[in-house]
Amino acid sequence: MESEATKILDEVTQGDYKYGFVTEIETEFAPTGLSEDTVRYISAKKNEPEFLLQFRLKAYRHWLTMSQPEWAHLKIDPINFQDIIFYAAPKKKKELSSLDEVDPELLATFNKLGISLDEQKKLTGVASVAVDAVIDSVSVKTTFSETLSKHGIIFCSFSEAVQNHPDLVKQYMGSVVPYTDNYFAALNSAVFSDGSFCYIPKGVRCPMELSTYFRINAANTGQFERTLIVAEEGAYVSYMEGCTAPQRDENQLHAAIVEIVAMKDAEVKYSTVQNWYPGDKNGIGGIYNFVTKRGICKGSHSKISWTQVETGSAITWKYPSCILLGDNSVGEFYSVAVTNNHQQADTGTKMMHLGKNTRSTIISKGISAGKSNNSYRGLVRISKNAANSRNYSQCDSLLLGAKCGAHTYPYIQVDNRSSIVEHEATTSKISEDQLFYCQQRGISAESAIGLIVNGYAKEVLKQLPMEFAVEAQKLLSISLEGSVG
Amino acid sequence: MLLQIKNLHASINGKEILKGVDLDVREGEVHAIMGPNGTGKSTLASVIAGREVFEVTAGEILYKGKDLHKLSIEDRAREGIFLGFQYPVEIPGVSITNFMRTAVNEIRKFKGLDPLPGGDFLRLMEEKKRLVEITSNLTNRSVNEGFSGGEKKKNEIFQMAMLEPVLAILDETDSGLDIDALRIVANGVNKLRRPDNAFVVITHYQRLLDYIIPDFVHVLFEGRIVKSGGKELALELEEKGYDWIKKEQE
To answer: Is the confidence at residue A1, as pLDDT, over 70?
Structure first.
């Protein structure tokens, strides 16, 4: 009985990665390897102010004193940082002008990925989404910047922000994730190349979804981007992030930082659909996704909400977190993490309750197939001063097949008597009965698994903006294609 | 002939359950299969639907003249075989609407038809809900999740109405139902009866047959059909009990 269900699961989860193509573009590279010279090279390339170069160098020197963390439930082959190219930028063609500043080849690449960089091409009935498109180490185009600036909103690449708004960058960069935070944060702080910057002024509700699309294209290259979102008092923004990479036999490193600052009454909703190349069926290739994401609810009644759908990457190491400093502030974490074949994921969140009456919600749904390993790791810490705080955590694991693993590591620390913490966890399987029931209604095994998995993840998927939800649902089914067996 | 079962033997984990079943079902007919617990009634239903845990060791099942053995579970369903489950399984987070839309459209695709447009699908749902007397909030809920026994069975009948099968097998759909639910289930079947489809109703008790009048009644005992007759056979069984059959077999 078990073997039959297993066979179907195997068949369904052996699908192919749909974004594995490479674009032929002329690219400028930094010399391979990492040294102070590499750091200076990147800073010079970007014509950065002195303070930023100093920040990078401090980070680099600190990084040299650190070693790669080993506490995660992950098996990571050693990374040789001297084999990685830390900066790769598509060369600009001189004859191009205005909107067509972007190489048509790049536009075509993003079109192929389903991302429109053309502001005119608005589908009727679909709300427009402002996009910052990042390829390898640089942002190639940010749409709707002008429209947004009428509201006082700054939405641009990190590099532009450094040039045009250095004071804001200086004030907030590293304020949530200091370069000393962890090994990969230090590395990113030394060599980060681009990313998105977003500033919503006081009382402004951002009129459209903002998004960044990250694409790794060049071989042997790492991507180290940095995103900084600042929402001033009473501001609101919903931000989405997507990512893909070509299919390659070697592992590629992606070590990013995302920082969010929410002032009094501000709300930031951050959604991710992570679909980096996961490696092949035998575990060859794929992206190492080592990301530090953290937001601080600085003011009272502020709110930060993380929603993530993680289907890609060979290894994911990522814990989008909230520091709930302001009284009555709210942190949320909704996650669906799918691992298939030989993928490994160790992901979760940290909720640090510092202010009074702070609340947090954690809903984590892990789905494991093939020979993969999927871990939830979470920390809920309620400090002495965070009186009357509450946390609710729910961690569910769904196993497809008998060779995969699901693990849950919840850490809870409560330092006052007035707070309440709840934790629920379940582990389940797609049963042969469920498959048979669906198939008996004429639904193929593959669709049945898509249906069951989407049903299981529904609580999280419904948190995603409309534009993302449909894509995420399809992605969940595709990621498990060929996993039924 | 719609369904022809010849000398069917089937086993699970090496244990033989069906030991030579013969059964002929024509379009427009309603057959009732009765018998004591554990004699293979549900196994017969599962084997016709193609459940892989059961191994067919001998004999054959012809459906519309074709050998069913070659068809997958889903293709059998797409060809018009419907199984009303004795214990319908829960699928959390999947609404009945979404479940049925997926099923209807996969069946349409199999027949070379385009997916049913959203509006048409919802109209079809409303029509079928009225037919089987189902309240609207049932279809907004996840498939069978938190349903009472009666709701689960009504949901099976609703799905049957939606998929308009050619051959519907109802596996003890009456078990655990109160009189009202039983009436709704039976009415559903009676309204869906047509000259070009057929029903095989598996039941332990005669009670359901007060509402669904069968053309034929068969008694399945120890893996074989040991007695067949008209609807009066059901009454005789009710009166004499299954011991009578057992004694006759000895």
So the answer is: no
Facing residue for A436 by CB, picked from B73, B98, B100: B73
**Cβ atoms within 10 A of the Cβ of A398, count?**
23
CA distance A473 to A466: 11
From B195's Cα to the closest Cα of chain A, the distance in A is 23
Closest CA to A411 of A446, A456, A366, A379: A379
The closest CB to that of B85, out of A437, A443, A454, belongs to: A437
Instruction: Tell me which chain A residues have a C-beta less than 8 angstroms from the C-beta of B88.
Output: 437
Percentage of residues in chain A having pLDDT higher than 90? 42
Global confidence as pTM: 0.82
> Quick check: A440 and B73 CB within 8 A?
yes
How many other CB atoms are found less than 10 A from the CB of residue A146? Answer: 9
Residue B68 · residue B106 · CB < 8 Å: no
Is the domain defined by B3-249 classed in CATH 2.40.50.1070?
Answer: no
> Above 70 in pLDDT, residue A126?
no
Mean pLDDT of A339-350: 89
pLDDT of residue B102: 93
All residues of chain B having their beta carbon less than 8 Å from the beta carbon of residue A445 are 74
pLDDT at A101: 62
For the stretch A371-383, pLDDT in tens is: 888 999 999 999 9
Distance CA A398, CA A418 (A): 34
**CA A58, CA A179: separation in Å to the nearest integer?**
8
- Here the tokens at position A144 are 């709707």
Amino acid in the structure at residue A2: E
Least confident window among A415-429, B51-65, B178-192: B178-192
The pairing of strands B91-95 and A373-382 is: unpaired
Instruction: Name the closest residue on chain A to residue B45, using Cα atoms.
Output: A440
| Residue A165: pLDDT over 80 | yes
CB contact under 8 A, A442 and B159: no
Could you give the CA distance from residue B208 to residue B84 in angstroms, rounded to a whole number?
15
Q: Which residues of A touch B78 (CB under 8 A)?
A: 442
Q: Do B89 and A434 touch (CB under 8 A)?
A: yes
CB contact under 8 A, A438 and B91: yes
Q: How far apart are CA A245 and CA B105, in angstroms?
A: 33
CA A260/CA A329 separation, integer angstroms: 14
Nearest residue of chain A to residue B13 (CA atoms): A1
**pLDDT 10s digits, B37-88:** 888 999 999 999 999 889 999 999 999 999 998 899 999 999 999 999 989 9
Provide the mean pLDDT of chain A: 84
Q: Are strands A303-310 and A267-274 parallel, antiparallel or unpaired?
A: parallel
Residue from A280, A308, A310 nearest A371 by CA: A280
Interface ipTM: 0.96
Q: Hey, which bits of chain B come out as E strands?
A: 3-12, 15-25, 30-34, 55-63, 66-67, 81-84, 91-95, 142-143, 167-171, 198-202, 216-221, 224-229
Backbone angles phi, psi at A387, to 5 degrees: -65, 150
- All residues at 6 or more sequence positions from A417 whose CB lies less than 8 Å from its CB, including other chains: none
Asked if A431 is an interface residue toward chain B (Cβ–Cβ < 8 A), one would say: yes
CA distance B219 to chain A (A): 26
Which of A434, A447, A458 faces B106 most closely, judged by CB atoms?
A: A447
B106/A451 touch (CB, cutoff 8 Å), yes or no: no
B71 interaction partners in chain A (CB closer than 8 Å): none
Q: Kindly state the tokens that stand for A440.
A: 């008996």
**Tokens coding A457:** 């993840």
Quote the minimal CA–CA distance from A435 to chain B in Å: 10
Pick the closest to residue B24 from B1, B8, B7 (CA basis).
B1
Single-letter code of the amino acid located at B46: S
